[in-house]
Amino acid sequence: xxxxxxxxxxxxxxxxxxxxxxxxxxxxxxxxxxxxxxxxxxxxxxxxxxxxxxxxxxxxxxxxxxxxxxxxxxxxxxxxxxxxxxxxxxxxxxxxxxxxxxxxxxxxxxxxxxxxxxxxxxxxxxxxxxxxxxxxxxxxxxxxxxxxxxxxxxxxxxxxxxxxxxxxxxxxxxxxxxxxxxxxxxxxxxxxxxxxxxxxxxxxxxxxxxxxxxxxxxxxxxxxxxxxxxxxxxxxxxxxxxxxxxxxxxxxxxxxxxxxxxxxxxxxxxxxxxxxxxxxxxxxxxxxxxxxxxxxxxx
Length: 299
Description:
299 residues; alpha/beta; TIM Barrel; five-stranded mixed sheet; globular
C-alpha cells in the first residue's frame, strides 16, 4: 500500500503572531532552514516524494522556496492565501482567498495546482460548500477534513476513506481525509502534528499498520517548524501586551513544544516503515471512478 506524505508550509512565527494578535506579519527565514532539513531527509530515504500545501503569503514572499520544492519533484498544492479559517469566511471570501493562492502558486511553478488543504482543517459540516467552490476553481482534490470530533475542527460523521464526491454544482472532487484510528465508538487522530508528537512511535506504527490492512492509504500532515532543532518560543515575537496575551502565549508554547524533540527521529521511522507518495501520484494510480454524495447538510 502506498501512502500520502504531506507538509503544510507556513511560517510558525507568522501563524502564531496571527493567532495571538489577529494581525499578520511578514514571514521569516526559518522556513529555509526547516525545509532544507526536510528535503534532505526525503532525498536520503530513496527520494521519497511528498505534497507540500503552501500558504500563499509565504509563497509571495519566498517564491524561490516554492521553486526549490517543486524542482526536487515534490507536488505543490494550496494552503490558501492568508491562513483564514474557512468556517469564518463567506463563499465569496473563500473563493477570493483560494483563487489568489492558486494563481500565485501556478505562476511561480508554471504547473497546475490541483490540491487544497484548509488552514486548521477548517472545512466543517456547515462549510462543506467549500468543496463545490474548489471543484469549480479547478481543484482535483481536497485534504481538509478530519473525521473526528474536535472543538476547533472535524466532521465526526464523514467517511475516513479516500473517495470521489459529487458536489452541489455537479463537478466532482476527491477528498483525502486525515488518517484516524477507530477505538471503541470514536475515531482517534493519528495523522500528524501534535498527535504524532505526543504518541510513542510503536503505538503509531501499530495503529497505522492496521489502517493499511483496510487498503486505505495513510494520509499524514506535518509542519516544517515541528522539525526545528531549537525550542519554539512565541515570546520571540514580542506580541504580548498584557497578562491575558502572556497567558495565551505561555499555553501555546507548552502545547507546541511537547514532544517536539522526537519529531526528527519519528519522521525517519515513518519513512523506513511505510511507502509514501504525493496526492497527485496516488490519484493517477488509484481507481476512484465511483462517486459519492456529500452529506445532505452540505447544501
